[in-house]
Amino acid sequence: MGTAGRIVAAGWLIVASAVASAWAEEAVHPAHAIELTHGCLSQRERRALVESGSVVRLAAAMHAVRSHVAGTLVRARLCRRPEGLVYLLTVLAHDGKVARLTVDAAKGTLVSGR
User: Fold this and answer.
1) CB 49 within 8 A of CB 95
2) pLDDT tens digit sequence for 6-33
3) Cα separation, 98 vs 89, whole angstroms
4) What pLDDT is recorded for position 26?
5) How many CB atoms sit inside 10 A of residue 72's CB?
6) How far apart are CA 76 and CA 54, in angstroms?
7) Which of 44, 36, 38, 35 is nearest to 88 (CA)?
8) Nearest of 43, 28, 10, 26 to residue 89 by alpha carbon
9) Contact yes or no for 105/56 (Cβ under 8 A)
10) How many whole angstroms from its chain centre is CA 104?
């Protein structure tokens, strides 16, 4: 393997390591405690709500958080909350930190993030 191949392999190893780290943190600390107390929707339920216009598309929710956290989406869930439906997003930031964000699914606005 040449120098270029080693550099590419090292780059992939770094990305894989960061994603694995994010997943490990998800296992130790659930992304959002709300998932434990309220139900998250199935893919079929999510699709029906998006098609009916009751909630914004995931892309719109991601657009709402881009100005707060730049990175790679690791996990996205649409869950029920007493106030309504929210997207629970886990983003692996470019600096390697994991950000957990909540977006109002009806309005497409950022509710909270850490």
Assistant:
1) no
2) 554 444 445 445 544 544 444 444 444 4
3) 10
4) 47
5) 13
6) 17
7) 35
8) 26
9) yes
10) 13
pTM, two decimal places: 0.65
Percent above pLDDT 70 for the chain:
65
Q: For residue 60, with 0-12 CB atoms within 10 Å meaning exposed, 13-18 middle and 19 or more buried, which class applies? A: middle
Unique residue bearing structure tokens 């929210």: 86
Q: How far apart, in whole angstroms, are the C-alpha atoms of residue 78 and residue 105? A: 8
Residue 60 or 9, more confident: 60
Closest CA relative to residue 90, chosen from 26, 45, 16, 12: 26
Domain ranges of the chain: 3-113
Q: Are 113 and 93 in contact (CB under 8 A)?
A: no
Q: Rounded to whole angstroms, how far apart are CA atoms 33 and 102? A: 12
Q: What are phi and psi of 22, to 5 degrees?
A: -65, -45
Does residue 30 contact residue 82 with C-beta atoms inside 8 Å?
A: no
Give the DSSP letter of residue 30.
-
Is residue 32 within 8 A of residue 81, CB to CB? The reply is no
